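Q: Sequence in, structure out?
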Amino acid sequence: MGLQRLELVARQVQQRTNPTVWIAAFLALLGAAIAVGAYPVVRGLGRRIERLKSGVEQLGTGDLAARVKVEGRDEIAALAESFNRSAQRIEELVAAHRLLLANCSHELRTPLARISLAAALLGDQADAKTRDSLKRDVAELDQLIEEILLASRLEAVSGLEQRAPVDLLALAAEEASHYDTEAGGQSATVLGDRVLLRRLVRNLLENARRYAGAGPIDVSVLSETGRAVLEVRDHGPGVPEGERERIFEPFYRIAATRESGRGSGLGLALVREIARRHGGEAVCLAAEGGGSRFRVTLPAA
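A: Exactly. Output:
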């Protein structure tokens, strides 16, 4: 009697158990096993794609030496190899361009020196206006070549070649004396390249001299919390608000400048580049009463 009851219970359990449950459980276990086995593969592919994305972003920010590690022999590895070849080609083209630009600038100095010598030898054979115009053109060409060479060097070298304490007020006063003006304000020391900082101040003063009109040039240095601020203001026509950012682009000139033929459009681009090399920034602001106010902010030493 007891054995018959056990058989009856077992038969009822088998009847109650739906085969679909067993199939679902088996499929769930199979899916979990596949997921566990596939996770390392998918994670590895994800990391490789992330490294490839990081390399593309580095190249996009100007790091031409950016390369990515080639792993495996699949499509992602082929894509990484293609990226490395493209980056290598871009780096070679940019290096060749910089070398060509530097060599051309150096070669231009020889005929420029001949022209300058010829202008000096003219003496009284040419009228004063012609001599002055020729000397002015030679000086502008010489300055343009010097700025092109400096721009090429800044592109080729990352960071600063030397760092030393520089009294920004003393440097500004020294350069301002060449433009018949004075620099006022507070003494502020910055840590940087004296040659580059001198070029920054000189370019701002030269820009102000070109567009100051009959008004004076105001130069001041302020010491703020952790910062040194240099301001150069002119009393000329000023820069339209929509172009105050674009004038820092290489070789960009506003309409009035293009019509007058003054300047090359490279001086202010160098000002911003030098400021950023020192961890600072250069901006153009409106000045009360007309004119433009160029403000350079640098970290104080």
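The mean pLDDT is 77.
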